[in-house]
Amino acid sequence: MEGRLNTSGIVSNSKTDPNKILPMRYMWARNHYKDGVANNWTPEEVSMQKDVEQWKDSFSLTQDERHMILWNMGFFATAESLTANNLVLAVYRHVTNPECRQYLLRQAYEEAVHTDTFIYCCDSLGLNPDEIYNMYTTIPSISAKDEFVINLTKSIFDPNFEIKDLKTLQAFLHDLIGYYVIMEGIFFYAGFAMMLALKRQNKMIGIGEQFEYIMRDESIHLAFGCDLINTIKKENPSVWTPEFQADVIELIKKAVKLEAQYAFDACPTGLLGISTQQFVNYVEYIADRRLERIDLPKVYLQENPFPWMSQATDLSKEKNFFESRVTEYRTAGSLEW
Known about the structure:
Blueprint: H1 27-38, H2 49-56, H3 63-94, H4 98-125, H5 129-133, H6 135-138, H7 140-152, H8 166-184, H9 189-200, H10 205-235, H11 242-266, H12 276-293, H13 311-314
Helix pairs in contact: 1-4, 1-10, 3-4, 3-8, 3-9, 4-10, 7-11, 8-10, 8-11, 9-10, 9-12, 11-12
């Protein structure tokens, strides 16, 4: 790896005054912060009454649908804590730019809201917390995803890790891709598709709406992460070697395989009108979009099997007054994607 570390850029910049946010250098970070504020929400704003009724009713949900809901609750409940730990304990320390740090603080708050969401859902449905919060150890496909991300990001969790040359910067970039592109950009999306597909059948509407809110947050997290990754690449082009790019592509391909296995475990028989393979195809489509976002070639060339998924993040929505309270989307609906 030729060249020298850019010590006046977005990470490990000793000349940055962390208390001085003006003038701003990276306006995209400021814009992501403002988008996050516009999507502000809390889980208690969403009524769970219909969900509770359906969960208690033996005929409202099939056993396969209940299985799928529990699997997604189990994965997301611990995954949100995992992402928050990555953010607070590792990423924040090395990203020294003030406006980026302001966004990271906003993201940390949103991760706390997501964690609170699963507490709210477990309490509302009367789920066994020991079962839900231990699925990352008891369910092999969930454990495999969590272990994959932990291994991807363990470099920057070393308390002695410092970005002091291009090699260590490349290690940090590797872990950022594991955190933002794979964990938040790929591993969440089979679950998102399953829960929103269930909501489209008028089942578990409350949980579905909360998953929509979470997906909106995650889409901003992903956008910020990719902008951060691309800025590091631009400021330190020597780290973006052909060998490193090939390694990243292989990591993403492994991640897609793990997410495909999870999809078959969580929803083995599909949902009404949707096969499990379509959920896998959606993950492949998403993976190609993530590759493109960080200037890598597509791998899967997959068509989007769920064009309606974009409505959860890309379009303003107006709520039906008789379906849920109008205020529930007042802030989130103001977003332009």
